[in-house]
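Form P-L/3: holo structure prediction, ligand adenosine-5'-diphosphate.
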Amino acid sequence: MSISETQIPSAPAAADSGTVVAAQDVTRRYGEGDAAVDALRGVTIDFPRGQFTAVMGPSGSGKSTLMHILAGLDVPTTGSVEIDGVEITRMKDKQLTLMRREKIGFVFQSFNLLPMLSAEENIDLPLTIAGRNPEGTWKESLLKAVGLDTRRKHKPSELSGGQQQRVAIARALASRPTVIFADEPTGNLDSRTSGEILDLLRRSVDEFGQTIVMVTHDARAAGVADRVLFLQDGLVVRDERGLTTGAIHDIMGTLE
Ligand SMILES: Nc1ncnc2c1ncn2[C@@H]1O[C@H](COP(=O)(O)OP(=O)(O)O)[C@@H](O)[C@H]1O
Ligand SMILES: [Mg+2]
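OUTPUT (holo model):
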């Protein structure tokens, strides 16, 4: 079966689907001279509000580099990135830190929770650092949504991997960020737990209108997204919507 025959219609765009993240002609070169590596070679891409995008591609294709640049954790060699219509590419460090705190949530493969803090304290921490008070009712609905309202006093070491990742997702959602960036969020989890985490990310898009950009090499993970970008050698080579897991597999096979 060809790829186009396996596509299913994508859901209609959300009513307020303005662009929340935009990259224009982004390049990233590591190193210099003969040792230079062009990790990104001219990426122009928009992410509309309330959409779940997966970023796929072979190892070394530039996925992590792109995510770090979109999130203001790294600076492009040339080109620009806007978040909520504000160019972040030339911001000073302090401004960038504030922007990230305000507008971006992160979920990492390795959970990155603070071991001395309880689940609830981990969730509250970014807001506390930003001098904001966690909104009580929002936090309660988050704790329920991630299934941790009875484990809120537990430390990360007293929680399973899946529970720890659910804490990390609640932490990312707590500030109602403009966008959540997730880098291989299911990379350390078994298949069943991965399914629960993907389900939770999907629900945060459907129920809270969260915008998510998720880097993954797992076709099943990408299959829950609305849109899948495929990178190869530092370029976006395909931008697809409504792909089945099988179709994603087929495309990855052509890129590797
Ligand atoms: N800090 C770095 N210094 C030099 N080269 C790097 C660095 N980070 C990544 N690269 C190179 O850039 C390319 C893209 O890497 P990366 O964005 O990590 O790809 P992916 O996440 O898709 O595996 C690879 O060739 C990688 O070796
Ligand atoms: Mg990577």
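COMMENT: The longest helix spans residues 191-208.
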